[in-house]
Specification:
Helix content: 25-40%
Structural class: alpha+beta
Largest sheet: 9 strands, mixed
Radius of gyration: 19 Å
Number of strands: 17
Distance between the termini: 18 Å
Shape: globular
Length: 295
């Protein structure tokens, strides 16, 4: 497999980083997850430029100097996919990190390397729906960590949540913030339907500003289903008529149980999921601007 690193395509065995990298030791890095879909005729990368823009915003938030533009990184992603000749659904992982060794926590003046890998990827969560639980680990607070950045170090929080959920026999975690409001899954945004209204937590509650979340809001509005961005309590979560996770890996995944409370795969979730699938595979011309053809 070929990987793009700082302008060069190298073999996977050549993609190395120092064990003393502050990115490895201290979590000082940023990354993205991007999907590409093979529709039988071409490979379409979904919202590629938007993801690279967010990568650079994340880097700016944590003070990581990335020496590439979003357009350069977009072209690099297409280059690495073509170099591998993929013609199947993919997951693309750009990561900006410090490749050189350093023990000091003073990372000022260090320039990032960027690596972009792509690999075949299927479903991340169960297509038929997942059983979720509210875990004890709280989502890190914006006063403690820069939660709007998709930073590598923050994902220890997500790992702990996911491990707890699976240890309890569930498929996925639901996290609360420090104020006890519902925020997101371990790696996905969350939407709930109550009294026919589609709702999702607002950015100011400490969520990651998800690109799939933004996609769902756009699709819902186009379907005549306005989305209410509001703080969601645990009680509202437990009395939801429908709920689903939304994320690059998770796509649109129904939540069919929360802490023993069964939820149906309702009509709103199904309409959003179908609209999303049509958009990412190029079957809706109005969303063609979201797609980057590879071949």
């Amino acid at each position: 497999m070929k990987i793009w690193i700082d302008g060069k395509l190298v073999g996977e065995e050549e993609a190395k980083v120092s064990v003393l990298s502050p990115s490895l030791n201290y979590g000082f890095g940023v990354f993205e997850g991007i999907r590409a879909y093979w529709n039988g005729e071409n490979l379409l990368v979904f919202r590629l430029k938007d993801h690279m823009d967010r990568l650079l915003r994340s880097a700016k938030i944590i003070g990581l100097d990335v020496p590439y533009t979003a357009d350069e990184l977009t072209k690099a992603a297409v280059e690495v996919i073509r170099a591998n000749g993929f013609k199947e659904d993919l997951y693309i992982r750009p990561v900006a990190y410090i490749s050189k060794p350093q023990i000091s926590l003073d990372v000022r003046g260090l320039q990032a390397s960027v690596a972009i890998a792509a690999l075949p990827f299927g479903k991340y969560l169960k297509v038929e729906g997942v059983r979720a639980t509210v875990v004890s680990w709280r989502r890190v607070h914006t006063s403690m960590m820069p939660v709007m950045a998709k930073a590598t170090g923050i994902y220890l929080n997500s790992i702990m949540a996911a491990v707890e959920a699976r240890a309890k026999g569930y498929d996925e975690a639901i996290m609360l913030n420090a104020e006890g409001k519902v925020v997101e899954g371990s790696g996905e945004n969350i939407f709930v339907v109550r009294r026919g209204v589609l709702m999702t937590p607002p950015v100011e509650d400490g969520i990651l500003e998800g690109i799939t979340r933004d996609t769902v809001i756009t699709l819902a509005n186009d379907l005549g289903l306005p989305v209410l961005e509001k703080s969601i309590t645990r009680e509202e979560l437990y009395t939801a008529e429908e709920a689903f996770f939304a994320g690059t890996a998770a796509e649109i995944t129904p939540i069919i149980e929360i802490d023993g409370r069964v939820l149906p795969k309702g009509p709103i979730t199904q309409r959003i999921a179908e609209a999303y699938r049509r958009a990412v595979t190029g079957r809706e011309e109005k969303y063609a601007y979201w797609l980057t053809p590879v071949y």
